[in-house]
Amino acid sequence: MDNEEIIRNAYRIAEAKDTEGWLAAFTPDGTFTDESIGVTYRGQDRTFPLDNYGRAFSDMHRELHQVYVNGDMVIVQLALQGTHDGPLQAGDGIIAPTGNRMDAPCCDVFQLRDGRIERFDCYPSGTVILAQLGVLGALDAAITRS
């Protein structure tokens, strides 16, 4: 597989909510950073965003718009889509299902090494997501502290 195919396959793995396949797509020291909240996941924790969004959006879909490849770097413009029908972990609390639909812009930047993901920087538009869920204006009221 070329680098674009490797990343398209990683998205297929994410769509299938295959956590073991997701982990196998990374190098052992690979990282996944959610740039909207400034958190970097390593090791087994790299499955947390996949699991969290999978629970919160049972129909989670990543609509790929453009894929750019420059050597071992792959950049993807996409939209995160789904219906908020499950609990969404947000910081130290939970956003209860709103039933609202999300269709939010995102940009993913991947650095590959030997055919696996060494670094994944995800830039989802957190404000768009929260606004579409209807909780941006009342964030404190929407979160139940755990």
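The above is record 1. Record 2 follows with the same two-line structure.
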Amino acid sequence: MQYLIGGAHMERALVIKRRGGRLKLIHGSMERDTAAATGLHLIDRDARYNPYAYLEAHEGNELAAQVAYLADVIKDEQLTGRLGVYGMYDAGAAMTMLNLLQDRILDTEIVGEYGNSLFATARETKDDREIAEMVEAGRLTSLVVGDTLDFVSGHDTRDDLVVKRDGDLLTIGEVKAFIRSRIYHYGMQEDHDTIFAQGRDAGVPHNNGTPDMPLRLGQTIVFDIFPKLNSGYFHDMTRTWCFGYATDEVQEIWTQVKEIFDRAMAAIAVGVACQDLQAMTLDYFESKGHPTSRTHPGGYEGYVHSLGHGVGLDIHEEPRLNIAAGNTTRLQPGHVVSVEPGLYYPEKGFGIRIEDTVAFKEDGTLVNLTSFSYDLIVPMK
């Protein structure tokens, strides 16, 4: 729905379309101004399909009222033949409602899709208007990351610990609260919990970080941030930091991650097979002696994930930079993907990931949506 109505936020709205017909938006009367801004043909739900009238007619049975409402819409709009249903709804509730709806309607078959659906295909490529939104998302996200670096590095230290003015230790949770405040300061939203994971936690790719853990110098911090604009478009970037200093081992591993990151960024182009970029990354890490998802499937150490994924109205969408069976996708204009190699050694107490998000404009031009330094060591001011 957000894709069809330009990111407007509406409750219990419904978009309908006949083949060859125009988009129609059924909306609540309280959201009529928001609805008008979409430019779609509008139907005021409260005037034409009043929810309270349906509830009264069905003695308060919400399921029966919803089924009757949808059946009336289908009848009024003459939606016959195959009717595709899309949207976000609890799986069990949707199954119950749609089965009852199917029993109520004639000449209409309700169908759904799984995986490579109509909307997954449409959303896989972005036009230049959407990419402009994502450029802005990248700009604002980079500002948040810069503010966070300044915030932490501006603190005092004591015995390799980061200390606040009152003498208490600065914690991961306090840094994440600061990050959250800056996300909202720049008019964005934190739809998923930002990753700010230190030491052993950084060695588990989707560990969000332990809130009460004190911030320590010399330990790797994987900072993976993925806020979104109010229009719904996400940005995704990761930096790995060591405040103050880094060990020789961490510096060596970071250099390897940065080298394959640079190679992948140089190789990514329209026409390149997504599988080839992942294969190149696997070959490189294996040549350096690291276990990978190809040599040690399901393993916890080394390179354990794919090189990247599509980014858009979801943080993870098509295309995928992996070698999964059936992935024959080649990069094309409109694709927006993350590039994020990483190495993870939780038992050694560190993890490293570097990530930018890039886009191919309609003319095939590559645009890096992420603009921030890659430095591993952050000096304390």
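The mean pLDDT is 96.
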